[in-house]
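Q: Could you write out the predicted structure for this multi-component system? I'm mainly interested in how the pieces pack against one another.
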Amino acid sequence: MSAQVAFDRAEPICGMDTWMPVPARIESIIDENFNTHTFALKLLDDELARRYRWAPGQFNMLYLPGVGEAAISICSDPENGKELLHTIRIAGSVTSGLKKLGPGGIVGLRGPFGRGWPMEEVEGRDVVLVAGGIGLAPLRPVVYSLLHHRERVRRLVLLYGSRSPEECLYANEIREWYDDPRIDVLVTVDNATGDWAGPVGVVTKLLARLKLDSSNSVVMVCGPRILNRVAAWQFLQSHVPADRVYVSLERNMNCGFGRCGHCQYGSKFVCKDGPVFPFSEIASIFGKEEV
Amino acid sequence: MNASRPGMVEPQILPKDRLPELIRILQEQGYQVVAPVEEGSVLAMRPVSDAGEIACGIEDTQAPGHYRILDGPAPTYFDNVVGPDGPKRYFFPPHLPLFSFSVDDDGFVLEQVAPEPPRLAFLGVRPCDLSAIRVQDRVFGHEDNGQVFRCESETYYMRAREAALIIVVNCTRPGGSCFCGSWGTGPEATEGFDLSLTELRGSFLVRAGSSSGVSVLDALSTEPATEAERELAYLKVLRAREHMGRVLKTDGLGELLRNNPEHQIWQEIGDRCLGCGNCTMVCPTCFCSTVTDSNDLVTGNVTRTREWESCFTHQFSYVTSGPVRASISSRYRHWLRHKLSGWWEQFDMSGCVGCGRCLTWCPVAIDWTQDIAQLQREVESREAQRVSSTLEATS
């Protein structure tokens, strides 16, 4: 579980030849907000755990035996080999079952799957990360990777939108990053509750505050569909090249390797061609309804 | 006639009364024979133990939303075309238990693996279905960036394919929904089979397409076809080619569909479509599936089973916020654009082979070949207008 081997894609350790997940134990569950929790997992097989590699932006199929699987992005610090974290919003039978199982429970894991963020493309450029809600989870590894190797990039900016201050993921870390001169963090909320004194409104409003060196920036966006759409278009309007605006897409995943058909987006299999796409690859269908 | 290379073998003649012998030889070679039989009110590819079970003297009439079988005037075997299902279910079963396992403190214990596929000889595969098998070969067998994913479901497919012997039948009486002629996937098969048959009056003209086919022919000890018999077989296939029930202009189709995702034809089709998914269940190339878990309450074992899935269902594209494709028109659009356009990008080939099942088995008789033709005419006339106005402007 140490640093990624491929810049955007590591091979599945467990799911490559089988629908049989490898067993993992839930080590701990950290509450992020009322319905979102970060699960720390440990593969039961030490040898597999040692060999396990992943890249920021990739996902695992987490499995609740007898119930089913859910595609969850890996949100660990890529250089913390002990960590295998998944931030999960409780939404359906699998995710609520995982929560009920609690620490010590045995779950299954297939993966990692998919193409992650362009971690080579960032070299020497400004990096702008835009996240909405749980979309911060797949970008957390990018933040850590770049903080560990801060010299690789020029500016590092994180724009994050949350429904309310209480629903903010990784609140303690965001506070740390806020005070960290190596990263510029801007957080906005839809509902300013409590003593919130920061920006209020949709995250795309924060873009206006950016002094963007558009010709030399890489943008990574992950959020609800509407955020992906508006953010991508705003960056394109600001003349960031279409092949440097990346979005991570959500689809229904079943197999994870492009055979079951569920996750198709136009002619793309989001599970293996994505979930991260440069805008240029999906320009003809991006923003079209129900494609 | 002991040539080992199939190309070296001259077309042979197999009298129809020797069909039982062909079945027996296949059985002696270890195959279970699968052939068209009358099942309920349709023709279906089913295991047979002797030639008498094979549907004979049956014709079919097909059109969008219409399928009937009836007694024909002659005791011919293949004066009909594809029924609702074909060989697909034997390679890619509609319901395949992948494995069962139990859970203990140390993890998962495998209790049962996927079944071993039977060794099947298919007698009477149509050229369109043979093309569809080759499409699925690529879907289930292709590599991604040099990575080969071989999960249980795909190894089943590969093993079933390797074990199978395919006897294709060239079509001499095309159906009302057929358009293999437009794709070049029929009415005659040119490769990918072990044996091919063309039905003549009292006999079949037989060609070998593989060494397995040659060994069957060797065991049959047949006579070479005469020049007249070969000519007759040629003419029968030629006539079929000229009498396709439907026509599809395939040139530039992928690009046309790629460029027109928001054309009104999608809404028009969607207004008629019931979203029943019949087209996907009868399609010989559709490969979508869902793996689900079931639990044995007695043993506590979990079984993971792969089942056919349809992109017309609500749950197919379901994410937490709802289905990605909520409207029926978007589902039809997805399905047809995938077949005719996206498939080229994914697998470098067409996802449609022109078997016409999606037309025949559509309960509301949607004939998308007509809708596509309308789209083609519109785009062409728009282009013609553009050219003429450009000419006017420059003259």
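A: Regarding packing and overall arrangement: Chain B touches chain A through 57 residues (CB under 8 Å).
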